[in-house]
Amino acid sequence: KVQDAAHLAGERRTVTALFMDVVDSTALAGQIDPEDWTAIMNGAFDRFYPAIYQYEGSIARLLGDALLAFFGAPVAHEDDPVRAVRAALDMLKIAKEYASEVRERYGVGFEVRIGLNTGPVIVGRVGSDMRYEYAPMGGSVNLAARMQAAAQPSSVLISDQVYRFVAPLFDTEDAGSIQVKGLAEP
């Protein structure tokens, strides 16, 4: 069955993508029972969601131990990059608090790293009639994922695009030039 472009077409928006991943999750998942790992991740997501929703972000998808959220659609705010940074900082605080509970109950560590990028995307229905999600698509989202991969454990790494919006509002450290896989310029 062929579908017309309007059926799956999205809307062009500028959003701030937030990509969060658990540090060393493959090793952690291999150290404990799958039920315990699932409980840990469900507990983490239960705690992280309110931090995103509090700043009117949207959760696009869960990828096992990772999360993609975005700010700027379906509702846009002038300060979406600021909202995304605040959510990310709240998530770091939540992860740190949750880590002691995880260590005490399961005997393993728990840390996250977060990457943020602001840029143009197409936001809309992604998938098929059988299964779809409301998500952003484009290189800007990929850069947020790359920023996350380059971040130190228990930190947030923001792109220059995010920095331009939030610099006067947050204490930041220059991470220097970072070579981002697949891009000539970071």
In short:
With 186 residues, the protein is α+β, with helices and mostly antiparallel strands. It has helices at 5-8, 25-31, 34-54, 80-106, 139-150, 160-166; strands at 11-22, 58-63, 66-71, 112-127, 132-137, 155-158.
List the main descriptive attributes of the protein structure presented here.
186 residues, Alpha-Beta Plaits, disordered N terminus, single chain, 6 strands, 6-stranded mixed sheet
Question: Would you mind describing this structure in some detail?
Answer:
42% of the residues lie in helices and 27% in strands. Strands 1, 2, 3, 4, 5 and 6 form a 6-stranded mixed β-sheet that branches. Strand 4 and strand 5 (132-137) form a beta hairpin. It is globular and about 45 Å long. The protein has 186 residues and is of the alpha+beta class. The protein has one domain: Nucleotide cyclase, GGDEF domain (Alpha-Beta Plaits, 2-Layer Sandwich), CATH 3.30.70.1230. Helix 3 (34-54) packs antiparallel against helix 4 (80-106). The protein is built from 6 helices and 6 strands; from the N terminus they run αβααββαββαβα. Residues 1-7 have low confidence and may be disordered.
Layout: helices, strands, pairs:
Blueprint: H1 5-8, E1 11-22, H2 25-31, H3 34-54, E2 58-63, E3 66-71, H4 80-106, E4 112-127, E5 132-137, H5 139-150, E6 155-158, H6 160-166
Parallel strand pairs: 4-6
Antiparallel strand pairs: 1-3, 1-4, 2-3, 4-5
